[in-house]
Write a structure and sequence with these properties.
Layout: E1 9-10, E2 16-17, H1 30-39, E3 44-47, H2 54-67, E4 72-76, H3 80-93, E5 101-104, E6 120-123, H4 125-133, E7 142-148, H5 158-169, E8 175-179, H6 186-195, E9 200-203, E10 218-225, H7 229-252, H8 262-273, H9 281-306, H10 308-323, H11 329-336, H12 338-349, H13 354-368, E11 374-377, H14 381-392, E12 399-402, H15 416-428, E13 433-436, E14 451-454, H16 461-468, E15 477-484, H17 488-516, H18 521-526, E16 540-544, H19 551-559, E17 562-566, E18 573-574, E19 579-585, H20 586-594, H21 597-608, E20 611-617, H22 630-643, E21 647-651, H23 654-671, H24 687-695, H25 703-713, H26 716-721, H27 724-727, H28 735-746
Parallel strand pairs: 3-8, 3-9, 4-6, 4-7, 5-6, 7-8, 10-15, 11-13, 11-14, 12-13, 14-15, 16-17, 19-20, 20-21
Antiparallel strand pairs: 1-2, 16-18, 18-19
Helix pairs in contact: 1-2, 4-5, 7-9, 7-12, 8-9, 9-10, 9-11, 10-11, 16-17, 19-23, 24-25
Length: 756
């Protein structure tokens, strides 16, 4: 590792002095100064508990890079409120013209997202990645890239593509990753370091000598809540049913171990689905048994974490679903089983919500002791609403709820502006209790709270660390952890604590290896695979803007394709003037057969391009979630090939899809010298086309049947008013089809029955 002389001075009042940092803004902490100096030399991952100033470290590094006038710095954070928070903090602390700071979010017009010689760009990662893919960012002029909440750099998250392109295209890249919790497994931490090209790992705990003077004690208080005899008996009945279903599946499909959790059962289901199972009745029954077990595990989690009411609500929705036409019959076996029926009756008798009562008791006591602010963490949105209602009814409790943007039935989500307003008012003391779902755990500066209460528990070590980090910053804090004894609630608590401890152990092991590997040999030789691809002129791919978050686009970018986003009227990818590609996962392919979307898309593509391609992605086209019959799938494939002259290709995953697209584009553009051109808009449909499309939305009516109906009745209106007997006069319309058509046309609309 290269040496970087400390550019930061500390004045007599204990504040950092630097030419580009305003006086009296940053209180000097030795560990922050030390980490900042190291982060100026190599790609660095900083792991610090929440509240210990990771953003300050980013500010110090940015200030020094700007002082040296080396280029542009980029700060990224996962959400708009969080990146706006960083933007405001830097604007308040940096001694530079505010015009040198620019904020890019989804609300920033595209015309204003122009890459100039800004000092610092603040951006959300998805937007910044898209700007890179469009070729609107000069990566070679960026001298520092900061990835906040760096633990997100896994899977297909935008951070990965950004880091790869930056590392490849910038002559002197410098990356700074910030996180409170990189993961509890060694392999997860190592993958994170690989994805962000990390060489240097800087890690501190609250007990480290250079950190301890700046942190306050956190007092943990476990609050066990015993289960009532009624709930214990109901749980036993539910567990018996779950165990029986899993055992039945294991008789048919042996597995390494008996699956117990939702994820383990899902893994076993996927293993069965990877085999031909539709013609094997035993395997099909095993899948149904596992599906029933998985439903009940989900319901049991609600009972274990929240109480009887939420189990009964879940089962009630399940019962309603089983009554709907076309509902899978295997679900009815759950609600018809005597054990489940008995458990339901027992839980109906249990009216007391002991956890909510304990929460109210603790909150009252804390306020009596002089506590000013309490944060209550609740994982489930519905439960947070009930907690808010109950606490709001108590004198002296000024309650606000912080939830995500997505809306639920009867519960509208909060916009980012509303979230920011609630947080600001909580800081100012207008509210003294904040009930927060997961949105309150990561990143947002909610401010330190005197007391934290876990209303329920999560097995995630990351979420545990983030919750706890909301207290003990400026004054001693308390963390109350409520849990129902002998349930998943208690199990999740101990799992999270073990994962927190394991994370510390794994990071220490990795850090010791970094220190002993003499710097650069650790990461680049061990983690980063050399790219052996020979540089060549880039091929271009036009991508429908609605595909911008697809992992296929990520893979195309990694292959070196130039991505051009456009609002395509036809297809998802244009590879040349001749070739357009419609990509569908196996499940989307099945859905598009059911709703006839596939054939409309095929027609438009055939009308517009010489070589229309249908790319189906997935391991087994016959094992779709909709369980559509294999004969229907084969018929649809035959129709698009023979009726619409489409080329059909298969791929196993997004990576293989991208490789196919890239290979075709490369041959078209480089070998055959075909131009890249987006062809014709969708042609205006005739009245006849619109009539066929209208009728194709009816149940069990595809294009050919719609045409037969129109030929017989002449107009859609006559079809809509025809009786079941009259409908059956048309070839292909039997009593079942006729009955379903009449039901759709005559039944009163019910919004709560919508499934999408």
């Amino acid at each position: 590792m290269s040496v970087y002389l400390n550019p930061f001075n500390v004045n007599s009042e204990g504040f950092v002095e630097h030419p580009l940092i305003k006086d009296g803004k940053i209180r000097a902490r030795n560990y922050q100064l030390d980490i900042s100096c190291k982060a100026l030399t190599d790609n660095t991952l900083v792991v610090l508990p929440t509240g210990l100033g990771k953003t300050v470290i980013a500010l110090l590094v940015v200030a020094e890079k700007l002082r040296r006038n080396e280029g542009v710095c980029v700060i990224m954070a996962p959400t708009k409120p969080l990146i706006e928070q960083h933007y405001q903090f830097f604007k308040d602390c940096l001694k530079i013209e505010t015009s040198f700071l620019v904020l890019w979010t989804g609300e920033t017009p595209s015309r204003d997202r122009v890459f100039k010689s800004y000092g610092v760009i603040f951006a959300t990662p998805q937007l910044f990645r898209n700007e890179i893919l469009k070729g609107r960012v000069q990566l070679n002029k960026i001298v520092l890239m900061v990835f906040d909440e760096a633990h997100r750099a896994k899977g297909n998250y935008a951070y990965i593509t950004i880091a790869q392109r930056y590392q490849t295209e910038c002559p002197s890249p410098l990356i700074l990753g910030l996180t409170a919790s990189p993961g509890s497994k060694r392999e997860d931490i190592e993958v994170l370091m690989k994805n962000l090209f990390i060489k240097n790992l800087e890690f501190r705990t609250r007990s480290d000598k250079d950190v301890a003077p700046y942190v306050k004690k956190i007092d943990y208080k476990l609050v066990p809540i015993p289960l009532s005899p009624l709930v214990k008996e109901a749980r036993s009945l539910i567990q018996s049913f779950i165990s029986e279903q899993i055992s039945q599946a294991l008789k048919v499909f042996p597995w390494d171990k008996k699956p117990k959790s939702f994820s383990e059962i899902t893994e076993m289901i996927n293993a069965i689905k990877s085999r031909p199972f539709l013609d094997n009745p035993d395997l099909l029954e095993a899948l149904k048994s596992l599906a029933r077990a998985r439903y009940l595990i989900t319901a049991l989690e609600r009972l274990d974490l929240l109480g009887s009411k939420y189990f009964l609500q879940f089962v009630s929705r399940l019962i309603e679903r089983t009554k709907r036409p076309g509902s899978p019959k295997y679900l009815a076996q759950i609600v018809n089983d005597k054990r489940i029926l008995d458990a339901i009756e027992l839980l109906k008798l249990h009216k007391d919500n002991a956890k909510l009562s304990k929460l109210i008791e603790l909150s009252k006591r804390e306020f009596e002791f002089g506590v000013k602010r309490i944060i209550v963490f609740v994982s489930y949105r519905a439960a947070s609403k009930e907690v808010e209602k109950e606490l709001s009814s108590i004198e002296g409790f000024k309650v606000a709820r912080l939830i995500g943007q997505a809306s639920r039935t009867g519960d509208r989500g909060q916009t980012q502006k509303e979230q920011e307003d609630i947080i600001s008012r909580f800081r100012r003391g207008e509210f003294n209790i904040l009930i927060a779902t997961q949105v309150g755990e990561e990143g947002l500066d909610i401010s330190s709270s005197d007391t934290i209460i876990f209303y329920d528990n999560t097995p995630s070590g990351i979420r545990f660390i983030q919750r706890v980090g909301r207290t003990g910053r400026n004054a001693p804090g308390k963390v109350y952890i409520l849990y129902f004894q002998g349930t998943r609630d208690e199990q999740y608590l101990w799992i999270a604590r073990r994962r927190e401890k394991k994370m510390v152990e794994e990071i220490k092991t990795i850090r010791s290896q970094v220190d002993s590997s003499q710097g650069s040999s650790f990461s680049l030789t061990r983690f980063i695979e050399e790219d052996e691809k020979v540089e060549e002129d880039k091929v271009s791919v036009v991508v429908d803007s609605r595909e911008s978050n697809s992992p296929v686009v990520e893979e195309l970018a990694r292959l070196g394709a130039k991505i051009i986003f456009s609002q395509l009227e036809v297809g998802d990818y244009v590879l040349s003037e001749r070739i357009c590609v419609e990509r569908k996962t196996v499940n989307d392919f099945a859905s598009s057969i059911i709703d006839s979307r596939l054939f409309h898309q095929a027609k438009f593509m055939t009308d517009s391009y010489e070589i229309p391609i249908l790319l189906i992605e997935g391991k087994d086209i016959y094992a779709t979630l909709s369980n559509i019959r294999p004969s229907s799938i084969r018929g649809a494939l035959a129709a698009v090939i023979t009726g619409y002259r489409m080329v059909v290709l298969w791929s196993r995953d997004p990576k293989e899809s991208a490789e196919l697209l890239y290979a075709i584009a490369l041959r078209e553009q480089k070998e055959l010298r075909k131009r890249l051109q987006v062809r014709g808009e969708k042609k205006p449909e005739s009245i006849a086309d619109q009539q066929v499309f209208l009728l194709s939305g009816l149940p069990l009516v595809e294009r050919s049947t719609a045409i037969k109906l129109l030929k017989y009745f002449k107009t859609p209106l006559r079809i809509f008013t025809a009786s079941e007997q009259e409908l059956q006069q048309v070839e292909g319309i039997g009593d079942v089809k006729a009955r379903k058509i009449r039901e759709v046309l005559t039944r009163e609309f019910k919004e709560d029955e919508l499934t999408r």
